[in-house]
Structures are given as C-alpha cells and as structure tokens.
Amino acid sequence: MKSLFTELEFHQVRKASEHTAGDAFMVHKDTVGKRLIAVLSDGLGSGVKANILANMTARMAIKFAEAETDFVHYAKIIMNSLPVCQARKISYATFTVVDCRPDGSVQIVEQGNPPFILLRKGVPLEIPFQEYSSEQGDHRKLRVYRFHTQAEDRILFFSDGVTESGMGSATYPLGWRNKGCAGFTTKLIGEQPSMSARQLAEQVVRGALCREPERKAYDDITCGVLYFRTPRKTLLASGPPFSEKRDAEYAETIRSFDGHTIISGGTSAEIVARELKAEITTDLFRFRRSTLPPISMMEGVGLVTEGILTLTETFNLLEGKPRPLRENAAVLLTDQLLNSDVIHILAGTKINQAHQDPTLPMELEIRRSLMRRIAGLLEDRYFKEVKLEFI
Fold it and tell me: Could you give the angle at the alpha carbon of 17 between the alpha carbons of 15 and 18, nearest 5°?
C-alpha cells in the first residue's frame, strides 16, 4: 500500500463577546519518527481564563504524547489532575488528542469533548473504544480509540461550540449535535469528494455559526480535520538556471513532473516556452483591477505568474495576511500550495539585476531568500513535504 499523506488543518471562531479564544489547538510533528500529534482543548468558560486553562492542558498533552510511552497512562494523570468546577460539575478543561503514526495507525484519546467523526468512503463509521473512569469519583470518562486509516479517510474533532450551536432555538433546541454535524459533512463530501481538510474545517465552523441566532458565536467554535490521501504534488519553478546550458533540463523537469506545475517569473516562462516550443498567452482581463501583474497560460503548465511581486504576496498570504476581496495571481498560487501535500520548489540562481537595485522596496528580496522562506513556512506551519532545489 502506498504511503498516505496526512493533511491537518483547523478553523476557529472565538466567542462573539470575547477578544481571546477559550479553545486551544496545538500540533507536534516528529520529523524523524514521522508522527503527527494534534490536541484540541476547551477551557471552562470563555475568554482569558478559559484560554489559560486550555493552553495549559493542550501543552501538557503534547508533551506527554510526544514521548515514546503509553499516553493513556498520562491522559489519566491529566484528567485526574484537572479540578472539577463545583458549581457546574464539569472539568476545568476538556481535551482530544489525535496521534497518527507513519504505519497508518491512529490513537485518539477524548475527555469531555464531543466524540470525533471518522468519515470513510464519505459516510460516518463508528469505532469501538475503551473507557476509563476518573479516580476522583466524578462522572468524567476517558475514551481511547485505536484503528488504522485508509485512503480518503477524514477525521473531524471539535469543541462543543460546534455540537451545541443553535441550542435553545426552535430549530435546534438541543443544539446541532454530533448527528447533525455528521450529516452536514457527509453531504459536503458527497458533493466535493476531493475537499481539503482546510476547506472542510472552515465549512464545519461556518455551518455551526449559521445555526446560531443572528449567526453570532455564543461559544468558542473550533474544528480540526485530518485528511488521509494519496499525496497531491505541485512543482513551483521560479528564476532561470544559473547556466544557460541547463535551460533544457529545467524545462524538461517541468514538462515531465507528475502533478500540478506553476512557473513564477516572466524570464522563467520564456525559457520553458522556448525549450518546449510552447506559446504563452496573457490574460489581461481576469484580474484587471489587481495591483499584481496578470497571469498567463502555457500548454502543459497549470499556472504562469509574474515572479518576485507575486511570490512576495504569496509569502505574506501564507504568513497570515488577510486574503484580498478580489482574487489575484498570488491568491491562486497560495491556494494551489495549500491544497498540495508534496511541493517541489525549483529555484533558479541566475541573478536578475533589477532586484539588486537598492531603490526598490525592501520586500523585493532576491529570489533565493524568498524561496527559502516560502519553503520553511510551508513545512513548519502547514506541515507540507517540501523539496527545495537550486539550479
């Protein structure tokens, strides 16, 4: 069986009356052992106090889970060490820990959070679990699930801001519940089988908000999604090779790539077009109001954009800059990178003298530095597998 790529994303909306989210979402990726650990903790109440409790719990869970020991033992310690609110009779923080191994095995530990949803072949699948009771004599339970993933499996886990959305309304007197969320996601995947983890997490949070009165979050709403799939590959080529003798090799690498291809840079595109005897056509109308240069088309290449300006804006979007209201070349490039799993960055090292002009804005970094920063961001923040090659 081919190794599956695990796409992990989450989306969150804080309670409308608060400036700080009371849910914490943390991730640890072991680059050596290839384990991926995600923790969602929901602090009691909302605001700063809940945020502190949730972050403390999530950090403890990450530290325990990343150790090569029995996490269930430590999960019991976390559960038993967290006090119970005497007024509400609930734990000061709840948590879900998802531990994914490179052999496809998954262990999920839940305490207090809504049960996770496993979508297999687009429909929810129930997984057996072991249950452990709190040693404090209260109602708290620890649930432990173990199973192996398959291609196209999706795991959704969330705080009760999702399942309790709309609670008390005429339509959802008991809230959206797990069943409602499961039906909602089943329909989404039926309509868009290739929907990414990022898109699905966002859609679930939006779905919860739509069920709240006035579409206002009455609690923190957080959803994490893991999507196990055959890797989606993208090649991003930018900059001409250092030696013109390698132009043919550069073009052939792009032509023969098994996945989506992007060329960012006019000179790079001209080299590839010349070597492959392809024609470049520029779309002057699609983004005519954009401050970025337009995109172009070339047979056999998925996307052709301008270079440094578009790459700089792409880096800013990946770093968290709000998306513009109107789509542009950088938005297309960013979306393609985020929807990919394995990314090969081919960076030409021939110096473009225009980018050495000290009068140009500081954000016009030389290509090599910018590509390194994009590669690092994709690896560290978005957990992509990135190969950075200079030519």
Answer: 70
Mean pLDDT of the 291-303 span: 91
Q: Report which of 363, 319, 366 is spatially closest to residue 338, judged by C-alpha positions.
A: 319
Structure tokens at 348: 């030409």
Neighbour tally for 143: CB within 10 Å: 19
Decide: 380 and 339 in contact? Cβ < 8 Å.
no
Which helix (H) or strand (E) covers residue 202, if one does? Answer: helix 197-210
Residue written as token pair 């650990």:
37
- The pair of structure tokens assigned to 72 is 């269930």
Which residue in the block uniquely carries the two structure tokens 């680059």? 31
- How high is the pLDDT of residue 72? 83
pLDDT in tens, 136-164: 666 788 999 999 999 999 999 999 999 99
Q: Does residue 359 register a pLDDT over 60? A: no
What are 312-348's pLDDT values in tens digits? 999 999 999 999 888 999 999 999 999 899 999 999 8
H or E element, residue 60: helix 47-66
Where in the chain does DSSP place strands (E)?
A: 5-13, 23-29, 36-43, 93-100, 105-111, 117-120, 123-124, 129-133, 141-148, 154-158, 221-229, 233-238, 260-264, 280-282, 296-298, 301-305, 342-347, 385-390
Report the DSSP beta bridge partners of residue 110: 96, 143
Cβ distance 9 to 201 under 8 Å?
A: yes
Given a cut of 60, is residue 356 above it in pLDDT? no
Q: Other C-beta atoms within 10 Å of 308: how many?
A: 21
Q: How far is Cα 248 from Cα 11, in angstroms, rounded to an integer? A: 43
Phi, psi of 57 (to 5 degrees): -65, -45
Stated as kind and residue range, the H or E segment containing 257 is none
Name which of 248, 173, 186, 182 is nearest 213 in CA terms. Answer: 173
The partner residues of 99 in beta bridges, in order of sequence, read 37, 107
